[in-house]
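BUG: 3D viewer hangs when loading the predicted structure for this chain

Environment: internal workstation, default settings.
Expected: structure renders.
Actual: progress bar stalls at 90%.

Input used:
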Amino acid sequence: MREETIVETLPPVRDWPAADLPGADFDPVLRELMDEGPLTRVKLRDGEGWTWLVTRHDDVRAMTDDPRFSREAVVDRQVARTAPHFVPAPGTVGFPDPSAHARLRRGVAAAFTARGVERVRERSGRMLAELVEEMLQDGPPVDLTEAVLGPFPVAVICEVTGVPAADRQGMHTWTRQILSSSHGAEAGERARREMGAYFSDLIGLREGSAGEDVASLLGAAVGRGEVTLDEAVGLAVLLQSGGEAVTGHSGRLFHVLLTRPELAERLRAEPEIRPRAVDELLRWIPHGTAVGLSGIALEDVELRGVRIREGDAIHVSYLAANRDPDVFPDPDVIDVGRSPNPHLSFGFGPHDCPGGMLARLEPELLVDALLDGVPGLRLAVPAEDVPFRRGTPIRGPEALPVTW
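Structure tokens produced before the viewer hung:
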């Protein structure tokens, strides 16, 4: 990006606590930062020092695809971050720069293509129908999170990764400990090690398999010498944990639908608009509490008239990018007819979410199953009494009491 004038005076460092927020509230501090400028400086809850924060849609896209910013350079640095146990370490799958990261992703790409996602669609639909039927048999009131929204994404990602049904609950427990800071850094790292040991055994057993699940694909890649076992395990843990984050996303989506009955009724009456509506809700709902992984500037970079110095840490906000008024007219409005809708809820660039198609499929299946299968579905408590998770980067209801 070419600028006429480079500003050498740095903006002030703002404290951004990235607080746990209920409902669909948009972080008020992030809103202020967006208003202050496209590029600000913030201090996060953990780590050391300050970091640049990028909030405009086009800048976020550009920065995440710019080789002058490196995730790998973050390793062994105590950069500002949003959780005490998300500490970059050598070999961590989320940090290799593009060439190494692409090599790792090639091993599992087949599981997340359109064909791979379609492979699990029918099985996912059957599992979901069984969960909804069990909920109806139990009768109201029920916790929708416990009955459907929690077990369904767990079952789907385990189907994709190749984890047997008998081990799903253990995976769910490990994932919640990994993603939540409320258990403490030691518990999160212990859960990561235990899940890693599990996948090490599973991938080893699948090394000669011709299966299409992630564990089998990684076992084959290890057997061909394309990735090491440690790399395969790290990728499996990342995919398993990320896939289960759909639990929080789905909980927030249904919280929005159940607190906006007119929207739910429209989707019941017009099923043809559901895919576009789900995509709009993926844009509008603030699924996270702050920012993801940071990058490091490998050289001086000019962005929006500001000089980012070599060695500076920088974060992007996908939440802010999804509310950029220059890209999304009336960004705070849920517009189920919005088109185009180039939201960044699954990231962008070489580190975008490999399971984006799967993460779209699951809420679409859930909307069909619950709006059509439970036509009287509604909250069983006042909206303000719905409890939300705390101490986790993925926002969502702890429970969603419903009746019909």
